[in-house]
């Protein structure tokens, strides 16, 4: 994830209990073992299929160069399998899959055409949330609500233009604390050519949602001025023009360079929310997260950041499992909730509140 601003020293460091550490180690081992087993099975199947065709071709044509190609293929297959074989030998000894047979996975069923390793990986991901993330996060936020699945309406947010249009969506880990909701979202398109299927990322980051005490009669957009969120610029312009929004400039020259503000009614409402402390907060946030957008409708605020990363994503490959950094994600979540709360206070602020915000964040 991109750096999100303040020093990590301001936030709590992650300390795992002995049970959490055991679960974490077991999850890492499981993913590595499952990945190794799946790779070796796939390599064996491809080896057998390719080998049979090669041998038939060799027998039919009786050319030495085909034997050379076959031997090279065997050597490559063995080389690619060495890492997986080593991982199996290294982690299989202490691997205990019983940890993944729990209340959360009891009702899960293997799909008809699903590989056993893929089914096991699904159980691992569910266990990762229930055994790892929920205990860790609820210790920091006792009233936190956690859902493995996303809950924001992506179609609605795409219609507002703060999220791009897309063919496919993956939403993961919806967190809600003190009225502020945060979740991960990955939006992408696919295309096919002679080289196979390719993904084109449209958005990969976090979505915020919360209510404020003020209710606007107009809709308000705040876009970062950079090439934004994978959108074609014409898509944003078309949306703004179609809904007859007017552009608003504030007194901050720096803010006007970094952001574009649009409102479809009373422009005074934009100034009502964009007080000096809201402007300063967004300016500072923009230094580390330049691809962002805000949409305010009534008393609802939606805020999206394209960080090109997912917080607390359950690892799906051995490489991801080996390099997972729970502490970094833990600090990021704290910062995002802190930022969301500060932004809400700034948007709600009257003169007395602004003074309190100023004192708290000196």
Structure write-up:
α1 (18-61) runs antiparallel to α2 (64-91), α1 (18-61) packs antiparallel against α3 and α8 (276-286) runs antiparallel to α10. The protein has 11 helices and 9 strands. Strands 1-2-3-4-9-8-5-7-6 form a 9-stranded antiparallel sheet, sandwiched between helices. It has helices spanning 18-61, 64-91, 116-140, 154-160, 233-242, 253-258, 268-273, 276-286, 318-322, 326-348, 351-360; strands at 145-149, 168-177, 180-193, 196-211, 220-224, 246-248, 259-263, 292-297, 300-305.
How are the elements arranged and paired?
Layout: H1 18-61, H2 64-91, H3 116-140, E1 145-149, H4 154-160, E2 168-177, E3 180-193, E4 196-211, E5 220-224, H5 233-242, E6 246-248, H6 253-258, E7 259-263, H7 268-273, H8 276-286, E8 292-297, E9 300-305, H9 318-322, H10 326-348, H11 351-360
Antiparallel strand pairs: 1-2, 2-3, 3-4, 4-9, 5-7, 5-8, 6-7, 8-9
Helix pairs in contact: 1-2, 1-3, 8-10
Summarize, please:
This protein is α+β, with helices and mostly antiparallel strands and 362 residues long. 48% of the residues lie in helices and 19% in strands.
Order of helices and strands: HHHEHEEEEHEHEHHEEHHH
Describe the sheet with the most strands: 9 strands, antiparallel
Query: Going across the major beta sheet, what is the strand order?
Result: 1-2-3-4-9-8-5-7-6
Report the C-alpha radius of gyration, rounded. 25 Å
Form type: elongated
What is the share of helical residues? 40-55%
> How many strand units?
9
Question: What does the average pLDDT come to?
Answer: 81
N- to C-terminal distance: 26 Å
Structural class computed from helices and strand pairing = alpha+beta
Strand content: 15-25%
Number of helix segments? 11
Give the low-pLDDT segments: 229-234
């Amino acid at each position: 994830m991109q750096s999100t601003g303040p020093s990590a020293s301001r936030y709590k460091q992650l300390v795992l209990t002995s049970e959490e550490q055991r679960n974490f180690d077991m999850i890492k081992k499981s993913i590595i073992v499952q990945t190794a087993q799946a790779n070796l099975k796939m390599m064996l199947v491809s080896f057998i299929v390719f080998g049979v065709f090669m041998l038939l071709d060799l027998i039919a044509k009786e050319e030495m160069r085909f034997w050379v190609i076959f031997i090279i293929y065997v050597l490559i297959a063995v080389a690619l399998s060495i890492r997986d074989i080593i991982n199996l030998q290294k982690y299989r000894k202490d691997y205990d899959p019983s940890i993944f047979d729990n209340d959360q996975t009891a009702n899960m069923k293997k799909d008809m055409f699903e590989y056993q390793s893929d089914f096991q990986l699904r159980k691992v991901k569910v266990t990762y949330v229930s055994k790892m993330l929920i205990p860790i996060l609820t210790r920091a936020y006792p009233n936190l609500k956690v859902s493995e699945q996303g809950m924001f309406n992506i179609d609605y947010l795409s219609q507002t233009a703060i999220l791009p249009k897309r063919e496919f969506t993956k939403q993961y880990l919806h967190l809600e604390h003190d009225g502020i909701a945060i979740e991960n979202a990955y939006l992408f398109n696919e295309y096919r050519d002679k080289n196979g299927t390719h993904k084109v990322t449209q958005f990969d980051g976090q979505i915020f949602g919360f209510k404020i005490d003020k209710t606007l009669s107009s809709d308000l957009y705040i876009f970062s001025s950079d090439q934004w969120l994978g959108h074609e610029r014409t898509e944003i312009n078309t949306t703004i023009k179609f809904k007859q929004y007017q552009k608003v400039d504030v007194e901050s020259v720096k803010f006007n360079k970094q952001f574009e503000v649009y409102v479809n009614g009373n422009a005074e409402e934009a100034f009502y929310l964009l007080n000096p402390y809201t402007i300063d907060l967004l300016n500072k946030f923009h230094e580390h997260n330049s691809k962002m957008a805000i949409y305010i409708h009534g008393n609802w605020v939606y805020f999206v950041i394209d960080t090109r990363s997912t917080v607390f994503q359950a690892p799906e490959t051995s490489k991801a499992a080996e390099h997972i950094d729970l502490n970094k994600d833990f600090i990021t979540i704290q910062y995002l909730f802190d930022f969301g709360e500060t932004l809400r206070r700034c948007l709600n602020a009257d003169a007395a509140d602004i003074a309190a915000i100023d004192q708290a964040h000196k």
